[in-house]
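Q: what sequence does this backbone want?
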């Protein structure tokens, strides 16, 4: 039986980053993966969706480039070629992760891991022991108890990423991040898209003012809010609308996108503290078992790839005796649709619920020079800031439009540093840049 300092189960953004950090620190590391390196993010989530969304955006820009003096003839979207590009990107990144593991002296084996106890893991009949165990098994698409979700027309994010034809009619159950990204993608390339959402607004983690604008900018998508799906009968989605009236939609493809469930199967023998959300951990990613850690989606705490990576680093630091902790107050998120959206920190509603004396301000993106030059005055977008009125500490930044996903890290840095409004106003932003909108919104507070 081979012995390791650390065994890590799962090679997603939490697992492979933890493996790299531990290996670079001189620990003997074993990384176990049941499918492909990179986990859901690299293979069926973050990376393939962004590859296809980028292709769809290029197509949309080509169709509407005449306002900028660029005339494109016979623009068309070839799904099979876009899918080939997606596969190339995914495979390249798999090889990149394999290179990193080799570089950091991490041993990688492929197979289903079974935890015998908190220090022993079995893969294909071979047992391996360790001093420390990191569980990074991720999550899977949730399947609510709705009759018919196992039908031939129903897909999750995994299956819909391998379509061979553009569906004429796509019905998406769920208006969260995944649902909105696929709604953006397929509506841009020719599908008739309907989103059926149980809540009264899409993107529940988002500031409501921004979410409403975001939904309005999805001009080619039909939204059915406050609707509860009762059944999927063949290719028909049956639901009750906000007024209690029964309705239905026919589709060539039905995408179920109503959240994620933690992958905890096979971990029962360990005696871990597992709630409905996932494995319970402390701020150092330690479970109730002294030498067992959990990171990423399996914890149910922050289901984002970058959160998982940081959790992996914190877990390795704990193993090494370093005193870093996982902080959740300034984790940025992004929706990579057209338009993009991103946020960090508290929404105005959350800030009020937490008892803050809230000050907020919103600025339209079209007031920004670079945004206007690149998108035109008809494009929608906004920046909203949320501030504690007593301390002037920045509590939240929310963006719709432009390259929101590329700007939001700056807001995270400002909030991690707990800068006051007056201090942020003294920072010099590049001009012209869309990022200036954050500073403009802070000036709008007064």
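A:
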């Amino acid at each position: 039986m081979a012995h390791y300092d650390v065994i890590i189960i799962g090679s997603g953004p939490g697992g492979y980053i933890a493996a790299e950090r531990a290996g670079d620190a001189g620990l003997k590391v074993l990384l176990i993966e049941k499918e492909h390196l990179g986990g859901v993010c690299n293979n069926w989530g973050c990376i393939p969706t962004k590859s296809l969304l980028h292709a769809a955006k290029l197509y949309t820009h080509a169709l509407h480039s005449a306002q900028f003096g660029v005339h494109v003839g016979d623009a068309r979207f070839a799904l099979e070629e876009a899918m080939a590009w997606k596969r190339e990107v995914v495979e390249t990144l798999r090889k990149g992760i394999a290179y990193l593991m080799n570089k950091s002296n991490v041993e990688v084996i492929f197979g289903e891991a079974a935890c015998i106890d908190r220090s022993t893991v079995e893969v294909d009949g071979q047992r391996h022991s360790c001093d420390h165990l990191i569980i990074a098994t991720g999550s899977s698409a949730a399947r609510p108890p709705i009759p018919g979700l196992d039908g031939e027309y129903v897909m999750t994010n995994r299956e819909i990423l391998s379509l061979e034809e553009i569906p004429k009619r796509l019905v998406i159950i769920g208006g969260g991040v995944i649902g909105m990204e696929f709604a953006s993608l397929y509506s841009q390339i020719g599908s008739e898209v309907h989103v059926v959402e149980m809540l009264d607004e899409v993107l529940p983690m988002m500031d409501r003012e921004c979410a409403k604008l975001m939904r309005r900018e999805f001009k080619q998508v039909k939204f059915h809010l406050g609707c509860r799906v009762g059944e999927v009968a063949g290719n028909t989605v049956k639901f009750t609308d906000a007024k209690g009236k029964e309705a239905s939609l026919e589709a060539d493809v039905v995408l179920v996108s109503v959240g994620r469930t933690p992958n905890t199967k096979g971990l029962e023998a360990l005696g871990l503290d597992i709630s409905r959300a996932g494995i319970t951990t402390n701020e150092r990613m330690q479970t109730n078992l002294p030498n067992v850690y959990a990171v990423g989606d399996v914890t149910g705490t922050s289901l984002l790839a970058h959160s998982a990576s940081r959790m992996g680093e914190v877990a390795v630091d704990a193993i090494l005796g370093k005193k870093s902790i996982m902080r959740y107050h300034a984790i940025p998120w992004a929706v990579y649709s057209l338009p993009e959206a991103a946020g960090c920190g508290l929404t105005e509603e959350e800030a009020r619920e937490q008892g803050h004396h809230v000050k907020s301000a919103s600025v339209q993106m079209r007031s920004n020079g670079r945004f206007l030059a690149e998108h035109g005055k008809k494009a929608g977008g906004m920046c909203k800031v949320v501030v504690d009125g007593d301390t002037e500490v920045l509590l939240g930044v929310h963006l719709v439009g432009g390259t929101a996903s590329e700007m939001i890290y700056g807001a995270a840095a400002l909030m991690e540093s707990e800068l006051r409004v007056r201090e942020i106003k003294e920072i010099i932003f590049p001009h012209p840049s869309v990022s200036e909108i954050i500073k403009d919104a802070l000036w709008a507070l007064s």
